[in-house]
Amino acid sequence: MVTQAVLVFLALVLVLLLVLLIVSTYNGLVRKRGAVDSTWAQVDVQLKHRHELVPDLVETVKSYAAHERQALEAVLATRSRAVGAQTRAERAVAETTLSGALRDLFEVAESHPGLRADQNFAELREELAAAENRIASSRQHHDDAVLIYNNVIQMAPANIVAGVTGFARREYFRAPDEEGGRVRARSRR
C-alpha cells in the first residue's frame, strides 16, 4: 500500500512539474513576443531610412522638374503621413501610399532626360531601391515572427498561460489592399 508520505511526495512532484510547465511556457511566450518587437524595430529602422532619402530625392527632382509641383508635394505629404502614423495599421497604409507616390515621381523623372542622367538622382534612386528591398525583407521577417507568436498563443497549453498573463495577438505589417503578401496593382487614373 501507498503511504501518505508517498502521496504527498507525488502531489508535490506534480505541482512542481506544473509550475515548471507554466514558467517554461511563459518564458517561451516572452521570447516570441521579444522576437516580434525586435523584427518590428528592424522594419522601423528601414522605413526611417527611406523617409530620410525622400527630401533629397524631391530636391533633386525639383531642380529639373519644378513644374511637376503636384507630384513633388504629394511625395512630401505622404512622407509626412508615414512619419506621423501612430499605429501599425495606419503606418502600413501610409507606407503603401508613399510607395505609390514615389513610383509616380519616378514616372515623372522618366520624362526628363537631364534628370535621368543626373548622378545624384541615379544614386538616390539606387539607394531608395536598396532601401525598398531591405524594407521588404524586414517586413517578411517581422510577419514571420508575428505568425509564430500568434500561432503559439492560440495553442494549448500556451493559450491558457497567454490568456491569464495578457499576451495578445499582434498585427502583421500589411496594407489593407494586400493579398497573399503582394500589393495589388492600383489604377493610376
Brief description of this entry?
The protein is mostly helical and about 190 residues long. It contains six helices and two strands; from the N terminus they run ααααααββ.
Which descriptors apply to this entry?
2 strands; rod-shaped; mainly alpha; two-stranded antiparallel sheet; 189 residues
Mean pLDDT: 88
Biggest sheet: strand arrangement: 1-2
Write down the Rg.
25 Å
The tally of helices reads: 6
Distance between the amino and carboxyl termini: 86 Å
Percent helix, as a range, is over 70%
Give the percentage of residues in beta strands: under 5%
Profile the largest sheet.
Answer: 2 strands, antiparallel
Write down the secondary-structure element order. HHHHHHEE
From the spread of the alpha carbons, the general shape counts as rod-shaped
The helix/strand class is mainly alpha
| Oligomerization status of the protein chains | single chain
Uncertain regions: pLDDT < 50 for 5+ in a row?
Answer: 178-189
Tally of DSSP β-strands: 2
